[in-house]
Amino acid sequence: MLNGKARAYTNIALIKYWGKEDPELILPKNNSLSLTLDGFFTETEVLFSKNFTQDVFYLDGMEQSRNATKKVSTFLDLVRKRANCPFFAVIHSHNHVPTAAGLASSASGLAALAGACNQALALNLSPKELSQLARRGSGSACRSIFGGFVEWERGHSDATSYAVPIDAQGWEKELAMVFVLINDQPKDISSREGMQRTVETSAFYPQWVEEAQTDLQLAKAAIQAHDFQKLGIAMEANGLKMHATTLAATPPFTYWSPDSLRAMTIVRTLRQEGIPCYFTMDAGPNVKILCQKKNVQAIQAALAASFAEKQIIAAYPGPGIQFVETEVTK
Predict the structure, then answer these.
(1) How far is it, in rounded angstroms, from Cα 188 to Cα 86?
(2) Which residues belong to any copy of the Diphosphomevalonate decarboxylase-like N-terminal domain (predicted)?
(3) Are 42 and 76 in contact (CB under 8 A)?
(4) Is residue 151 domain-shared with residue 16, that is, in the same domain?
(5) Strand 162-165 to strand 149-153: parallel, antiparallel, or no bridges (unpaired)?
(6) What is the pLDDT confidence band of residue 324, given thresholds at 50, 70 and 90?
(7) Based on the structure, what is the number of domains in the chain?
(8) The pLDDT of residue 176
(9) Per-residue pLDDT averaged across 190-218, rounded?
């Protein structure tokens, strides 16, 4: 038996990935930029054995359906081909992230699976190669290989699309992100479905791709200058433009809820009161608030008037993928 275990942390995109140039290879339409956080993570163990007759996937202790396992098996097929390994696998994955609720559980989940496979089959992949592999499971997973600020280079082929860390000279340690958990249930429209519908039908989408390139350059310049306000403005504008594309899709849809709008209003009010903070949302109703670490308590207090304590979670810049030593037997 060959086994490996890894932990990967979720990343939140400040400049979004929204749309695929190549759905099979998961090559994005534009570069994206994220911040890896310590508050949510996935820990995954994979075991390959000649005695297994099929792939079996356990998530938080519960065996998953064949449909849910199919995506994992498709990814494992890539690994098996690379390692020349004919064995099926059993996967035990524990999500310390609400699954499919817009909190990037697929990013941490597939990054952790890639890392566990790398360890189990002794692939000895470099961080860049591991990022390329994780991308084939879930696009944003390529960014969870690294900690802090990370840019996903869109590339034009399997070999040229991967994430790279951005050196902020430790400035990220001054920042934080406050999550407002509006809903931790699975979404009505998955990220994959929503993304595809937007690319194919939204009149706003071509402009989104063009704007995203400008937003990325503004965000990277802000990081290098350690300019929190400019980073926040670029992030918030980029997120709003992404969600605007869904309203112009056919049929139109949105991931926002009334509570999402309430949280956004609180952020704007805080800014008016002199507390700099900015919001973003991914493909789900939950709101993420980028702020300076020194203002976390004030922001939590303002949110507490409208949301329960358990809905408000602070997270801080986190590490890249971590490997857990396991006993490997054959």
Answers:
(1) 37
(2) 8-163
(3) no
(4) yes
(5) antiparallel
(6) confident
(7) 2
(8) 98
(9) 96
- What gap in Å lies between CA 202 and CA 126, rounded to an integer? 38
The pLDDT-based confidence of 148 (bands split at 50, 70, 90) is: very high
Pairing of strands 88-96, 56-59: parallel
Full residue range of the structural domain in which residue 16 is found: 2-170
Query: Is 208 a member of any domain?
Result: yes
Encode pLDDT of 13-22 as tens digits.
999 999 999 9
Say if 325 falls within a structural domain: no
Give dist(CA 64, CA 70) in Å, integer. Answer: 10
In a domain, 330, yes or no: no
Ordered DSSP codes for 62-106: EEPPHHHHHHHHHHHHHHHHHHT---EEEEEEEEES-TTSSS-HH
pLDDT of the residue at 325: 77
Do 158 and 151 contact (CB within 8 A), yes or no?
A: no
Cβ 138 vs Cβ 276: under 8 Å: no
Angstrom distances, CA of residue 112 to CA of 24, 108, 317: 21, 6, 18
Residue 330 pLDDT grade (very low, low, confident, very high; cuts 50, 70, 90): very low
Residues 6+ apart with CB under 8 A from 257: 182, 183, 285
- Assess whether 270 and 216 both reside in one domain: yes
Determine phi and psi for 253, rounding to 5 degrees.
Answer: -155, 165
Between vectors from CA 319 to CA 225 and to CA 117, what angle results, nearest 5°? 135
CB of 180 within 8 A of CB of 310?
Answer: no
Alpha carbon 319 to chain centroid, angstroms: 14
Whether residue 149 contacts residue 231, with contact meaning beta carbons closer than 8 Å, is answered with: no
The amino acid that residue 244 corresponds to is: A
pLDDT in tens, 214-256: 999 999 999 999 999 999 999 999 999 999 999 999 999 999 9
Instruction: Tell me the C-alpha to C-alpha distance, in Å, between residue 164 and each of 109, 119, 135, 216, 302.
Output: 19, 21, 13, 14, 35
Do residue 10 and residue 158 come from a single domain? yes
Summarize the confidence of residues 130-155 as an average pLDDT: 98
Residue 316: exposure state from Cβ atoms within 10 A (0-12, 13-18, ≥19): middle
